[in-house]
Amino acid sequence: MTAVLLRVGALVLALGVAGCATRGDLLAQDRRLRGLIGEQKRSVDQVKREVERLRAEMEEAHGVRGRTPTPEDVDRMTALERRLAVLEANARRAPAVFGETPVPLPDEGLPPPDSPVAALPTTTTTLPPRPAAPPIDDDEWRREVQQDQAAATTVDAPEREEFTRALDDLSRRDCSKAVPALNGLASKSKGSPFADNAIYWTARCYAARGDQNQAISKFYDVVTRYPKGDKAPAALWAQGNLFLHMGDTPDARLALGKLIRDYPASTEAARARQKLTEIEQ
Questions:
Q1: Superfamily designation of domain 138-280
Q2: What percent of the chain is predicted at pLDDT more than 90?
Q3: What is the pTM of this model?
Q4: Max CA distance (Å), the chain
């Protein structure tokens, strides 16, 4: 997928520097660009089919044969969904030639309406609306922030002050200021005792603003990269509830089931058992 985006970018650059390009050249570039975008769409569709196939197999095994999904099943499904989220995000960043503003040529502005490029058939690409952000329990948010603030005072690490400042922003629900600091802390301090907390709060902020795919991906990072960290149970709990908010009950069951299986003594596991009972009713 990265290779596809690089090739699309190279084509756009070629259009920008070719000040003496003929209309035939532009038509050829347009056809190539359409082909690359089609290739990207096929990659997304392929992963979607794989996700649907694996989900169907897991549901059949669980519902017909009574087999509980294995950790490998859960991890593979989550990895596929994460890859799909990245592919879809990349697709939205790719240059779109259908129904959107064409790339202007240097000193020429947009092509005139009667030019061959403007006359090419177009198809308007409409992205599905982003689901509304799930409701946030202010008391729970505040309580979690306070717990992390208290825990941070007991940890002697050079990045403690940086993490504490981000928590101060989170206490005011100022995610726009907190997220860049949290991302920076997580990327440069991978062995830090605060790294899993930083990724977790980044995910909470993404969920709060309605960016479900990014949030799920970040929660997945917490669990897979820091399975023994104190935020892994909370990440699975939040991920399960986010899936429910999105209407994805099968994946909610998988996340909550993993939480109960891997962290049975956690507070979140008790809440997950109750949630699963509610789902089944």
A1: Tetratricopeptide repeat domain (1.25.40.10)
A2: 44
A3: 0.57
A4: 70
